[in-house]
Automatic annotation (TrEMBL):
It comes from the Bacteria. This is DUF2164 domain-containing protein. InterPro entries: DUF2164. The lineage of its organism: Bacteria, Pseudomonadati, Pseudomonadota, Gammaproteobacteria, Cellvibrionales. It comes from Gilvimarinus algae.
Length: 81
């Protein structure tokens, strides 16, 4: 995953905040960026793939609803599928 400099700065600050507030430890900006890079490279793809699966499932549900809606307005004819 690639983040802009601004995003990396925000995420680094969030990691530092988490360590300070939840773990009662201070970590420097370099360590927080290193941890962010690790999670981005090693764990990020799992989140990315899960998001793709969720989006695909949502689109499938929406397409099924659309297909159902189209069949609801189908006109009766002698032709049978």
């Amino acid at each position: 995953m690639k983040f802009s400099k601004e995003e990396k700065d925000i995420l680094t600050q969030k990691i530092q905040w988490y360590f300070r507030e939840e773990l009662d430890r201070d970590i420097g900006s370099f360590d927080a960026q290193f941890l962010l890079d690790f999670f981005s490279e090693e764990i990020g793809p799992y989140f990315y793939n899960r998001a793709l699966y969720d989006a695909a499932a949502l689109l499938t549900d929406r397409m099924d609803s659309l297909t159902d809606a189209l069949f609801e307005i189908e006109k009766v004819t002698q032709y049978k599928r």
